[in-house]
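Dear all,

This email documents one entry for the complex benchmark we are building for the journal club exercise. For each entry we list the sequence lines for every component of the assembly. Then comes the predicted three-dimensional structure of the complex as a token string, followed by one or two observations. Please use this as the template for your own entries, and keep the labels exactly as they appear.
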Amino acid sequence: MSNSDLKTKLKLATVWLDGCSGCHMSFLDLDERILEIAEYVDLVYSPIVDAKIYPGEVDLALVEGAVASVDDELKIKKVRAHTKFLIAMGDCAVTANVPSMRNPIGPQAILKRAYLENASLQQQIPTIVVPKLLKVVRPIHEFVKVDLYLPGCPPSADTFYKTLKALIAGETPDISAMTRFGA
Amino acid sequence: MNLEELQQIASGVHNENLLFDFEVNVCQGTGCLSQHSDDIKAALEAALAASGKKALIRRTGCMGLCAAGPLVLIEPDAQLLQHVTVKHADAVINSLGATPVAELQCDLRQHFDDQDHVVLENSGRIDPEKIDEYIARDGYQGLVMALTDMRPADVIKQITESGLRGRGGGGYPTGLKWGMVAKAQSETKYVICNGDEGDPGAFMDRSGLESDPQRVIEGMAIAAYAVGASKGYIYVRAEYPLAVSRLTVSLREARRRGLLGNNICGTPFNFDIEIRLGAGAFVCGEETALIASIEGLRGTPRVRPPYPAASGLWGKPTLINNVETFANVPTILRKGGAWFAAIGTAKSKGTKVFALTGKIRNTGLVEVPMGMPLRQIVEGIGGGVPEGRTFKAVQTGGPSGGCIPAELLDIEVSYESLIQAGSMMGSGGMIVMDDTSCMVNVAKFFMEFCMTESCGKCIPCRAGTVQMHTLLTRICDGSGTMDDLDLLVDLCSTVKEASLCGLGQTAPNPVLSTLRYFKQEYMDHIVNKRCTAGVCNINHAAEVIA
Amino acid sequence: MSAATEIKTLIIDGKDVSARPDQTILDVARENGINIPTLCHLDGLSDVGACRLCLIEIKGQNRLLPACVARVEEGMEVTTTSERIARHRRTILELLFAERNHICAVCVANGNCELQALAQQLGLTHVRFPYRNPALAVDASHERFTCDHNRCILCTRCVRVCAEIEGAHVWDVEGRGADCKVITDLAQPWGDKNSSCTKCGKCVQVCPTGALYEKGKVGVEHPKRPDFLPYLNLMREAQ
């Protein structure tokens, strides 16, 4: 990707699927460097901005979290359809990480534990509002094409900074030099 | 024992046979036994006793045409009876010297005429448990000649001249292998016969051991003399109980005749054989895993070199050959290497036994000269696919091999041409498939086999076969994508090039060969979501929701 | 010329190097500062050539050879990194990550894991294969150590160190193919009162991942120290 014309800023989105939001926190750890990034990008969709609908055309999306529910699956497919360059942000998006720890035992056991055994009031598994869980939690690239993988739990603010700067400059960042699984 | 004594034994058998007007050979191979041919033999004996005719009712090994079993062969007029049952016993005995039983006649001349029996020359002709019958058909002449007239180097020279190559699948020149073990410096050396036949659809070795065990024993003894070994092991699958019991009897018989043991033929040559049972692991057919298994260790292969010829069983130089390889040896010694080399093609000499199975009329065991066109084996000897179906492919080489499509049926059967066609000779399994077979599903079947049979030692094979199977399963159930196919091809290359032993290195072959010739079927599953053969259950259901 | 002075010369990655005839290509490469990735190999233990990460190319041979067991030969031209080899190495790591539940973020060995480090070193940023997520047990019956099969890559270092160095042969492998599992004794709990474990902890120190670990220690507190092995062997030889 390149963005030679600085007057048209890149449209950046961040998406939160099944993750702990730690990647978003780490992203915010960019601190004052956010201002520098903001010179090149407009944050058009994110858990930290007001927009509720994913815009029609996004240049760059950072996706946190694994695909664990029907809702996640719909979301990631929609994001992919409207995004030029999709980045799997953090281990949950890249490997399914902690959310996938339920895979060997299955969703029923998890639901039972959370809503029946550990609930002191109104012990029942919710059927409305809460989206249906998929049988297996999987990384996002098993559902859609991913353009760049940013492993780390979470990837450091430095990693975000260098990666975004490289992408803005139209370069390919050397991910393994910056981060790894579990970093 | 010397040649005269062998001849005395032989003429003893011939004279005994002269007392009978007829010989009634009843197949007691595993195939016919499964249809109670032992009861048929008993019924024939009872009927014979009642009739007062003079006939020899003989238990024999496999006659080859398993599809027509239970089989009975009546000599001297070479009448082959098929689908014989206990009910037919009286009719068969009554027909001796009278009109043959019309309903039982098996008239498949072409099936037998196109074959050339070297390894199978005694199969279905002798009682496998009677060493004298083997001797009466020139058995043990090779060993006696070798021990009395030849130096070990002369024996190896004959084998080298014959051009015999390993029949277990690898096709390594046997003479070269023997030479290497002979040259290795060691007080102790071993000879191992690999009877751990595990390919799906293969039963050449089982049949050989059941039908003519003495031939393998003689071959091993000749090899032991040539390389300087005094101890041999036959590693045979425990799933072959009949082969094991016939071998046990045969070893005892050979010792009784002084053809195993100390000072064989009055020479300083000592040799004896022990049977070792495999516990069912396919990978134990790989030579280093087999050796580990004999040593009592986990049956896992190790990195070669060193090859067993330098450091094998218990670290000693070891010659390891397949059942069929050893079975060729006695005839080569008796008739000479040049005779053997005259059969076959430039680089693939002699004959090869194949187990014809699958969608083919004449299921069974056949032995043909190398170089015979595949078409002649499938359509001529095999009788082609059943009525109303069309031939699609023939799978050779077991799980390590590949599928050869109809357009390549005219290639000749040799080590080189089969490899060129993306398959391999393998041990000799030949599975014929017709239009009711889905080639993606076939690849998945073989992958499942490799996955289950992987020993788990090296990562590419242990984890790679599992992933290949997962990807193939996706394609079969209609959820596969073109990315999955690319990933599968990529993984094939790693498993092929990075695996430790032959099992892993060849595990991707069924995928690669079906992709080479039947890519359209893969595309049908992935793009059109349909299985043209109607085998795969294409699943349109979305992700299963909790 | 006596055997002790016989020297072979060969070329590794374009560099002229010399070696004793009994040396492996891996030994010689490392002596000369050329890094070849390994997982099952460990200095001081016998080699099994099972992880296949150390595969190298030899000029004139199409077959790839494991550097940990392949002996040097006069005039050999060795290539330790090529696009072909790099691709196989990454694929092998991917297969390992997908095989069991390697969840780096919550693993005791996070930051001290050879598998994790190799993934980074070889530029692996994601796994293309579906994760298998098998249900595997954790054996925490031992008073000092834990065995977590979720993290095991079946390198068999524990098996070899216990049999070859400690001489106890507590560890071995059961099952076949993907069902393989390291076991203690005859698949008895590690902490069984009749266990033959000497509690020496060598297996824990040589384990490249978080499969074997000391109780109560996590992450940065848990660097593995397998480097005791060559010294131990040297001291034993000296005796």
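Observations: The first helix of chain A runs from residue 22 to 28. The domain at 10-102+134-177 of chain A is CATH 3.40.50.700 (Rossmann fold).
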